[in-house]
Amino acid sequence: MNKNISILVILILVVAVGGYFFMQKSASTESTIEQSNSQIEDSTITIANFAFSPQTITFKKGSTVTWTNEDNVGHTVTSDTGTQLNSPLLSKGQSYSKTFNETGTFSYHCTPHPNMKGTVIVE
Question: What range defines the domain where residue 15 resides?
Answer without folding.
Answer: 1-38
